[in-house]
Amino acid sequence: MSDSFDVIVVGSGPGGYVCAIRAAQLGLKVACVEKRGTLGGTCLNIGCIPSKALLQSSEEFEKAKHALKDHGVLIDGLELDLARMQARKSEVVAANTKGVEFLFRKNKVAWLKGTGRITAPGTVDVDGKAYAAKSIVIATGSESVPLPGVVVDEKQIVTSTGALELDKVPGHLVVIGGGVIGLELGSVWRRLGADVTVVEFLDRIVPGMDNEIAGAFQRILQKQGLRFRLGMKVTSASVAENGVRLVVEPAAGGAEETISADIVLVSIGRRPYTSGLGLEDVGVALDDRGRVKVDAHYETNVPGIYAIGDVIAGPMLAHKGEDEGVAVAEILAGQTGHVNYNAIPGVVYTWPEVASVGQTEEELKAGGIAYTVGKFPFSANGRARAMGDIDGFVKILADKTTDRLLGAHVIGPDAGTLIAELTTAIEFGASAEDVARICHAHPTLSEAVKEAALAVEGRALHI
Ligand code: FAD
Ligand code: NAI
Questions:
Q1: What is the ipTM of this complex?
Q2: Are 299 and 289 in contact (CB under 8 A)?
Q3: Which ligand 2 atom sits nearest the alpha carbon of residue 348?
Q4: Which of 42, 160, 427, 438 is buried deepest, with most CB atoms within 10 A?
Q5: What domains sit in the chain, N to C, each tagged with a CATH number?
């Protein structure tokens, strides 16, 4: 293999591997450095894909246990085969990571196996061997934030990585942090039979999400059996053979109490990962949160070194990293890459799902923007009734003067799919009226989107 490339991408997560493929499609000679034994980064190996596999399997189990009875489908002798469920998850992960390997071969992207270190602008050292590149793209991703006093062993005190690997359903799972990871993985283990308590520092779950949606989300999860201890912080954890003893106290100060758990999941956020990359030596600047600073073209302060994905500012989402990967590849090939940060959807894959795009009501209020709201509940949607999934609603926020869509938030069945239409609408600068006038097939869940758009002007038909 030649030691000289147009582009070397460090990290093969959704940001890095997509950047490498797109750059190769555009005729550049590309290598991607990855130290993990498989390609695909956090997302494919220990993030999006394994968590969605377990969410799907646990949902099937829960349906078989409860929901199917309502449909007149009776199952005798239902059992959980957790080993099989975990094996299936691993098969799904392997199929995806091998898929990226295939795409690298197809596009002639060289996989440099090992740990990359940038030793000078234009030079990347991979386990002692130097490679030259006209441009370097940092796509090294993120890692979970540690909690002082709570030492992760990935057995009894776990991050998401350990929580995806449990070989036994815990009696009591305590989740520290009521964010996306805590609620998705808390849901998995609750469905499989664990008691789940979520300890959250703030007085609400999923900070950043539209308040009204977050409130509805919490009530639905509580109805499903998740317990919430809001406004509480964990100060220490001690591990014994029979479990973990957590000391918690009110975030605002007050009396301590202890909580016993079989497993503790620490999910209080993720932070950029740049360890061992040599950034200090080449002078690549980080911001006050350890993120690589980039300009509008994803270039760092060192010419020829770029960065994308979780390691830079913005939502830590796979599709955000992918779009940045494409943008950088196109910029490096002399084209004009661009990402519209106002139109990046976010989805929580619980059931019901929660999805949003654009601004929340709180952001609009804080920005002094006059807006109108249109809402429509799934309980008034024929298809949701037929499915037996009537929890949740669609909420659309439109500019009061121009009617332009400013934000959309959905909690309900298949919210993650429904948000695509509203993301498209925002990307195209559509008004609520535009969405309301589009013909939506009947009976589909998407009619709730149309009705919410009609409701912006008080014209919903089915409520
Ligand atoms: P990463 O995917 O983190 O990849 C970085 C890669 O770089 C890693 O493979 C690492 O080994 C490699 N690397 C680092 N340093 C070096 C080095 N010096 N040399 C060589 N290789 C190196 N996002 C969603 O959009 N949807 C979801 O459903 C979702 N679910 C998630 C579930 C969980 C449990 C977690 C933890 C995350 C989830 N995310 C989800 C977030 C998503 O995984 C990240 O946003 C995404 O993986 C970021 O992509 P990236 O390319 O920036 O970095
Ligand atoms: P998060 O930022 O979503 O949530 C962390 C939660 O922990 C917050 O509610 C925060 O207030 C709370 N917290 C912080 N410190 C605390 C403390 N000391 N004690 C108790 N609570 C505390 O982070 P999370 O869930 O770890 O996920 C990390 C990121 O991974 C997400 O922000 C998201 O970008 C990505 N992700 C995306 C998914 C998706 O798109 N479906 C799924 C899983 C992860």
A1: 0.99
A2: no
A3: 41
A4: 42
A5: 4-144+271-339 (3.50.50.60), 157-268 (3.50.50.60), 343-455 (3.30.390.30)
- Whether residue 71 lies in the annotated active site: no
Among the listed residues 9, 1, 5, the one whose alpha carbon sits nearest the alpha carbon of residue 305: 9
Q: Up-side HSE of residue 54: CA atoms within 13 Å toward CB?
A: 28
Distance from C-alpha of 290 to C-alpha of 451, rounded to nearest angstrom: 44
> Rounded CA gap, 15 and 47, in Å?
14
DSSP codes, 247-259: EEEETTS---EEE
Q: Residue 410: beta bridge partners? A: 355, 394
- In the sheet where 243-250 sits, what is the strand order? 232-240, 243-250, 257-261
Average pLDDT, 10 consecutive residues per value, the chain (463 residues): 90 98 98 98 98 98 91 94 98 98 98 98 97 98 97 97 98 98 98 98 97 98 98 95 94 96 98 97 97 98 98 98 98 96 98 98 98 98 97 98 98 98 98 98 98 98 95
Which ligand 1 atom is nearest residue 126's CA?
A: 19
